[in-house]
């Protein structure tokens, strides 16, 4: 249209709904949207095992809407679990680096240097992996548009960006004499300070979602991720050639991490198992296989590590096993979360057992002191108290009680 | 302007005509979702998504409607026009790292398409599975409660198109009163199954109440609604506490390894 004003043209670019009123053609952003696969290839007629009209609510105990998922599946691609591993290694390595610098003395200086190099490289690789998930480099900058404490994604972006910046500065300046060197060492300490949340926030990131499995393991998953980060950083650093003195430190660091990983993994499993449907993806299917692989490799890594003998090949075997275990654990957790989001009963049953809002605030009474009739869910408490009358089977879900 | 607006969806009045779905797509210029046949009911769009901001669910039940006898035997249909709930505490809003999701002057939740970064975190943070990512550019879209219409004192497209007043739009306080009256009326007429889903913080403490709430006749699950949803942020504090604990442990392990491992 030739008689458009500049304002018209600017608005057309951004607001997403525009119509060429003369031609009646939709030309806004929304209209550009296309579904990827409008008509998937049909492979013959499906024979339903049930009458369609009867296949709705599955059963009185476990109803659902034709078994369709309630939640949308998490969308993260393969780079995100990879980042969980790399970010964890970077965080743990920077912490060890500063500990070595502060307490290690001259003989361990080279190991400290190596820790800082691993941390800096890890930060840079992490940023690359995240950018690959977002699609465009500018989108990583956009993440730093605001700081929002309620969003672990926002907190994490700032932590990663901050730790990348200070670690890089430390890596460049550390060896310089005078003020610059001091600045570099201060930056290194800040990197370690940020490395702690960098290793753990990713667990908060996943557990601060509606995905039933991730939400459920919110207490233990950060501990698992952080101990696993310790084990992976220790294993990765041990893969580099190192001296006997360095081995003494590295051995203590990685074995402590591996033992902690072993116990926190069990804690994660226990927490997930509170609701059968929620814990299932950790035992079955592809996610279960990944989780099992991870458990086997991590345990084997620990066992090989503590076996007597100091040969190099044994050390390498242990480190590789631990690394595979840590990476597989990240992928397993992500896959299991996706599987639990697909299963509507995982969402429903956790909430019915009082693990939804009722659990968070102890929501059992209303503001006027009366027991809540809805959404209480709490089987065994709410249900028993207000037994449904046969003529009103859903009476316990009512807000307004029926007139007597 | 600026009063709290919302939807009251009275599912007892819904006839499943899908006028709301079509009106929404037309006003918001959303494309069709492909012409699939789900094979389980007359529900063709199946769920809310980036290009489906209203979705009519067809619940087919092997039980008769309360207080009614039908020639079809033990069978009844429940229809429900689902939409973004515009929660008082919105999971998507609290999760959004870029500030793309905002609360408007009408107390509704709005995604600014020009700010959205496509990280997809809001998608996992919604306890109702409403917001979804567009496939072509990865940005998240959902019902805007016709932000562009209500600013001009117009009714949102779906409510305007609804022929049975199943979708009602207005000031939240007024809608609450209307909904309470309707439930009481239904109960008096013998439909004691009727209840309100997510009306306010008391009925749905996990989300602080919904600006788009529903009158339902069966358990929330049969409509694909979670029975006791909670905004994930409410559970985040204990995860952060675990991170703090882990941090203490990590420092102890690092310092311990160095102190015990150094020679001399």
UniProtKB/TrEMBL annotation, chain A:
Keywords: Cell membrane, Membrane, Transmembrane, Transmembrane helix
Keyword Zinc applies: no
Transmembrane segments: 82-103, 193-214
Annotated compartments: Cell membrane
Database matches in InterPro entries: Electron_transfer_protein, NrfD-like
Pfam families, sorted: NrfD
Biased composition (Basic and acidic residues): 1-20, 34-45
Topology within the bilayer: Multi-pass membrane protein
Region span, Disordered: 1-59, 352-373
Entry-linked Gene3D superfamilies: Formate dehydrogenase/DMSO reductase domain
Keyword Membrane belongs to the record: yes
Family membership: Belongs to the NrfD family.
Name of the protein this chain belongs to: Polysulfide reductase NrfD
Source species: Corallococcus macrosporus
From TrEMBL, chain B:
Intracellular or extracellular location(s): Cell envelope
Membrane spanning stretches: 240-260
Name of this protein: 4Fe-4S dicluster domain-containing protein
Domain called 4Fe-4S ferredoxin-type: residue spans: 5-33, 75-106, 107-136
Primary subcellular site in the record, as a coarse category: other
Taxonomic source organism: Corallococcus macrosporus
Alphabetized UniProt keyword annotations: 4Fe-4S, Iron, Iron-sulfur, Membrane, Metal-binding, Repeat, Transmembrane, Transmembrane helix
The keyword Glycoprotein appears for this protein: no
């Amino acid at each position: 249209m030739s008689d458009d004003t500049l304002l018209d043209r600017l608005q057309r670019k951004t607001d997403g709904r525009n119509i060429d009123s003369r031609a009646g053609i939709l030309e806004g952003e929304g209209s550009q949207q296309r579904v990827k696969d409008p008509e998937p290839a049909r492979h013959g007629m499906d024979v339903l095992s049930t009458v369609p009209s009867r296949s709705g609510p599955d059963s009185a105990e476990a109803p659902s809407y034709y078994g369709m998922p309630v939640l949308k599946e998490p969308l993260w691609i393969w780079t995100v679990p990879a980042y969980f591993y790399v970010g964890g290694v970077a965080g743990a390595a920077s912490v060890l680096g500063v500990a070595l610098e502060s307490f290690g003395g001259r003989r361990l200086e080279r190991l400290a240097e190596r820790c800082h190099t691993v941390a800096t490289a890890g930060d840079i690789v992490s940023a690359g992996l995240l950018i690959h998930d977002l699609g465009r480099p500018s989108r990583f900058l956009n993440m730093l548009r605001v700081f929002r404490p309620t969003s672990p994604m926002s907190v994490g972006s700032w932590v990663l960006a901050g730790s990348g910046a200070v670690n890089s500065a430390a890596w460049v300046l550390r060896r310089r004499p005078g003020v610059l060197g001091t600045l570099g060492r201060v930056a290194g300490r800040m990197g370690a300070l940020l490395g702690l949340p960098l290793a753990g926030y990713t667990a908060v990131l996943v557990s601060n979602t509606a995905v039933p499995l991730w939400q459920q393991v919110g207490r233990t998953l950060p501990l698992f991720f952080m101990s696993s980060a310790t084990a992976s950083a220790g294993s990765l650093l041990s893969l580099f050639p190192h001296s006997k003195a360095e081995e003494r430190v590295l051995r203590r660091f990685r074995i402590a991490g591996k033992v902690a990983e072993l116990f926190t993994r069990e804690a994660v499993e226990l927490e997930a198992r509170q609701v059968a449907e929620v814990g299932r993806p950790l035992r079955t299917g592809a996610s279960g296989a990944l989780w099992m692989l991870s458990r086997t490799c991590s345990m084997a890594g620990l066992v090989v590590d503590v076996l007597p003998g100091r040969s190099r090949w044994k050390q390498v075997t242990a480190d590789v096993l631990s690394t595979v275990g840590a990476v597989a654990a990240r992928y397993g957790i992500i896959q299991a979360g996706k599987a639990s989001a697909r299963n509507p009963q995982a969402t429903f049953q956790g909430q019915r057992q009082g693990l939804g809002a009722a659990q968070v605030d102890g929501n059992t009474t209303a503001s006027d002191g009366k027991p809540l009739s809805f959404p209480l869910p709490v089987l065994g408490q709410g249900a028993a108290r207000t037994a449904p009358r046969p003529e009103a089977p859903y009476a316990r879900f009512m807000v307004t009680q029926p007139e007597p | 302007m600026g009063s709290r607006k919302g939807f009251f969806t009275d599912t007892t009045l819904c006839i499943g005509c899908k006028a709301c779905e079509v009106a929404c797509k037309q006003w918001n210029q959303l494309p069709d979702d492909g012409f699939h046949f789900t094979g389980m009911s007359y529900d063709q769009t199946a769920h809310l998504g980036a290009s489906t901001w209203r979705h009519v669910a067809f619940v087919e039940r092997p039980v008769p409607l309360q207080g009614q006898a039908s020639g079809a035997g033990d069978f009844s249909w429940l229809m429900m026009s689902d939409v973004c709930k515009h929660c008082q505490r919105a999971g998507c809003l609290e999760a959004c790292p870029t500030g793309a999701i905002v609360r408007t002057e009408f107390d509704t939740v709005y995604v600014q398409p020009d700010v959205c970064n496509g990280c997809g975190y809001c998608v996992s943070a919604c306890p109702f599975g409403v917001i979804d990512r567009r496939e072509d550019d990865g940005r998240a879209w959902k019902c805007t409660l016709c932000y562009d219409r209500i600013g001009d004192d117009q009714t949102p497209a779906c409510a305007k198109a609804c022929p049975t007043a199943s979708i009602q739009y207005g000031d939240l306080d007024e809608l609450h009163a209307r909904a309470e009256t309707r439930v009481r009326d239904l109960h008096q007429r013998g439909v004691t199954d009727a209840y309100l889903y997510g009306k306010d913080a008391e009925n749905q403490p996990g989300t602080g109440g919904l600006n788009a709430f529903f009158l339902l006749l069966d358990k929330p699950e049969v409509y694909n609604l979670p029975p006791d949803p909670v905004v994930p942020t409410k559970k985040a504090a204990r995860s952060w506490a675990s991170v703090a604990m882990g941090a203490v442990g990590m420092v102890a392990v690092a310092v311990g390894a160095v102190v015990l491992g150094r020679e001399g």
